[in-house]
Write a structure and sequence with these properties.
Number of strands: 10
Helix content: 40-55%
Shape: elongated
Order of helices and strands: HHHEHEEHEEHEEHEHEHEHHHHHHH
Distance between the termini: 9 Å
């Protein structure tokens, strides 16, 4: 009876107490044999398979979702910084009059690669019977090319066509479509800064010629942003030689918060510096929070699979009572019995983890081709450009996420084996063999 266990054990002898904490060859051998042996109770094998697949599914889902969240964060940051500067210096009063010395202070900083003044204002654009509210930005075209990647987003015309005194305007693609205007059309810009007339306060009106169209891929910019020359903006908003502020580009954008703090110590008292992390804090905080929540929620899949490991080992311990008793009789210590069943549970978790990591990495690296194939196959579009900032599902696989998910999965599987293995170690040989 139970000859296969005896053969697996060979000449089993007790192990000195100071070596009990080390995994002995016979413990590993028997644990692996129990894992791959054909069971009398097929239900245990089924639960083991479900546990392995559950862990694989949870690990793969976590890696894929974290990669997609990283991709969204990277894509949003790239698109935002494609049209907004890394750092801005503005005045408390809204107008920076003596801005040339401030520009010199900014450009002298070692981490600043470019800087340029700008003017911000609000207005309404009118063409035919269409009217749209806009954010107007006055820029120096040559300075803007050094500050942002907006020149690469031009769909028609060029930023260099914004020449002073010619009152040209560059519009976002969605804004131009909403107005029904095209390159070369004349549109009317209405500013809230009115002028006093005998008939009362009237808004200021100025005609502009559309000299360019851009498309960032984010609705807040494509729908509402209009660019004009800096001098034209100063005349339009009656700012004289003043500007709204100065934009700067960092050599390393992650250093922008530190550079902003350093500049504030050198700038005049009525000015302060702000960086891209403050200006767009809501976007990045929401993405970071969603990433954490998705990690917690999807970790529950791994936890459920770990409970299946507990069930598997509890049933396996019950099924192997006689084998445990024989091993104890041959000299195996309770610690050795515990390690045998821990090997069985850890192997289930390890196989599931490896399968999940491989599946998650493969899908994450190929999600750019997989999602379009599914959309084409079923005739659907997951991310419509009409409703979402990003119409394609991005993915940014990071090794740190893979290591974190794999480590978490393995530790959960390891802890899931402790209680059933401890119960197996408490088995008394005389009680187990009484009815054999």
């Amino acid at each position: 009876m139970h000859c296969h266990t005896l053969r697996a054990c060979g000449t089993l002898t007790s192990v000195p107490s100071h070596q009990q904490h080390i995994l002995q060859p016979f413990e590993l051998l028997i644990g692996l044999r129990y894992t791959r042996a054909k069971r009398r109770n097929h239900f245990i094998s089924f639960i083991s398979l479900i546990s392995t697949l559950g862990i694989a599914l949870g690990v793969a889902a976590l890696i894929i979702v974290l990669s997609v969240m990283n991709g969204f964060q990277k894509e949003i940051r790239a698109r935002i910084l494609g049209v907004t500067p890394h750092l801005q210096v503005i005045s408390e009063g809204g107008q920076l009059s003596n801005w040339q010395p401030v520009l010199d202070i900014i450009t002298r900083h070692a981490e600043v690669s470019a800087a340029s003044p700008y003017v911000n204002g609000q207005g309404m654009l009118s063409h035919d019977e269409n009217v749209q509210g806009v954010m107007v930005r006055g820029i120096l075209p040559e300075g803007e090319n050094r500050l942002t990647g907006l020149a690469d987003k031009m769909k028609a015309g060029s930023l260099t066509d914004l020449r002073a005194g010619e009152f040209g305007i560059v519009l976002g693609g969605d804004l131009a479509r909403a107005l029904g205007t095209h390159l070369g059309d004349t549109i009317l810009l209405i500013t809230p800064q009115g002028q006093v007339t005998p008939a009362g306060m009237l808004p200021r009106l100025k005609q502009f010629h559309v000299v360019g169209l851009f498309e960032i891929g984010m609705a807040p910019y494509d729908n509402t942003l209009a660019l004009i020359n800096l001098e034209d903006a100063q005349k339009l908003y009656r700012m004289g030689t003043s500007v709204t502020g100065i934009s700067a580009r960092m050599k390393d954008l992650d250093l922008a918060p530190r550079v902003a703090g350093q500049l504030e110590r050198e700038l005049p008292q009525d000015t302060f510096a702000t960086d891209w992390t403050r200006q767009n804090a809501n976007y990045f905080s929401v993405v970071a929070m969603e990433k954490k929540m998705m990690f917690i929620i999807l970790s529950l899949i791994v936890l459920v699979a770990a409970f299946n490991i507990v069930s598997t080992l509890v049933m396996a311990v019950t099924d192997k009572q006689a084998d445990i008793a024989i091993l104890r009789t041959l000299g195996a210590s309770p610690a050795s019995i515990m390690k045998i069943f821990m090997v069985q549970g850890v192997l289930i978790g390890l196989v599931g983890m490896v399968l999940g990591v491989v599946g998650g990495v493969v899908i994450s690296l190929n999600i750019g081709t997989l999602i379009p194939f599914i959309e084409h196959l079923f005739g659907v579009q997951f991310l419509s450009k009409e409703f979402y900032y990003i119409s394609e599902l991005p993915s940014d696989l990071q090794a740190s996420d893979v290591i974190t998910v794999a480590s978490m999965s393995f530790l959960i599987s390891l802890f899931a084996t402790l209680y059933p293995s401890w119960r197996a170690a408490q088995t008394q040989p005389a009680e187990a063999l009484r009815y054999e």
